[in-house]
Specification:
Distance between the termini: 17 Å
Shape: globular
Strand order of the largest sheet: 5-4-3-2-1-12-13-14
Order of helices and strands: EHEHEEEHEHEEEHEEHEHEHEH
Strand content: 25-35%
Radius of gyration: 19 Å
Low-confidence stretches: none
Number of helices: 9
Structural class: alpha/beta
Length: 280
């Protein structure tokens, strides 16, 4: 019987900005928590399911995987995916995302002096090989995650004089342009991350919080819910359902909302918090 479920964020929590853990032998370390038969580790992320699954395998996580900002969740034990959108709503979102994609391209082409390179691509791999684009100049490189179905994550880089750099200024302008250009009947949220220099687009109809609430209602009504993260969105996901814990590198706003802030960052902080949750 599962008595405790701990939802883990990926970027900035399980892994650092270099896309890796800050401890060795994570597989064996996290597998040790299997000894606690009442504890189940899960993931709740804005990432696509295809991007989440290798992380889940690396960290030996066998609980639910919430993907694409709560658009759906996947249960590894049954290998079933559950969408939190009706077929009509899902199809409408896909159509609206295509509209947003064209709006973004229109902005770059007509409102800036940049050339545009757009790639629908495996962004995890692409971000490790940005040097291949160095020959371009005065160019915005936009890497759109090809695995996503109901959300968009577009990493934006500016290329000038052989240098590929985060396009912080441009991504803010793009986000503002898209928000203003969206018709009122398109219920999409458009935001951006300075930290990762990427543009995020997702449905306003679902959220990480609604996915967790559905999991509790449908599958784990008697379990205690916890979340470990590094941002205020991780707190919002769990605030009405369970307790929020923060790793050391969490922003100050989210730290104030947590019941405990680890003295360790990233993976090491997660392990520290898990030990504390188990002891309760």
């Amino acid at each position: 019987m599962v008595n405790k479920i701990v939802f883990l964020d990926i970027d900035g929590t399980l892994i650092n900005s270099y896309q890796g853990p800050n401890v060795q032998h994570v597989g064996s370390l996290f597998a040790d928590f299997k000894i606690q038969n009442d504890l189940l580790l899960a993931i709740n992320s804005n990432r696509s399911l295809q991007d989440i699954m290798p992380i889940a395998k690396q960290f030996k996580i066998r609980g639910p995987l919430v993907a694409e900002n709560g658009a759906f969740f996947y249960l590894p034990q049954t290998k079933k995916k559950f969408r939190l959108l009706s077929p009509v709503a899902a199809n409408k979102i896909i159509k609206n995302l295509e509209y947003v994609k064209n709006l973004i391209k229109k902005f770059v082409i007509t409102k800036t002096n940049f050339k545009l390179i757009w790639k629908d691509i495996d962004t995890v791999k692409a971000l490790k090989d940005l040097n291949k684009y160095q020959s371009a100049n005065n160019t915005l490189l936009m890497l759109n995650n090809k695995f996503r179905q109901y959300t968009m994550s577009i990493h934006v880089r500016a290329i000038n004089n052989g240098l590929v750099k985060p396009a912080t200024k441009e991504i803010k302008l793009i986000s503002t342009f898209v928000q203003k250009g969206l018709p009122k009947n398109i219920n999409l949220t458009v935001t951006f991350s300075k930290k990762y220099s990427n543009l995020l687009v997702f449905s306003s109809q679902v959220s990480k919080q609604s996915a967790v609430a559905q999991l509790k209602k449908q599958y784990y009504p008697n379990a205690k819910f916890y979340a470990i993260g590094d941002e205020i969105s991780d707190y919002n996901m769990i605030k009405d359902i369970g307790k929020f814990y923060a790793v050391k590198n969490t922003d100050k706003v989210a730290q104030k909302k947590s019941v405990y802030v680890s003295k360790f960052t990233y993976t090491r902080g997660v392990l520290d918090i898990l030990k504390r949750i188990i002891s309760q």
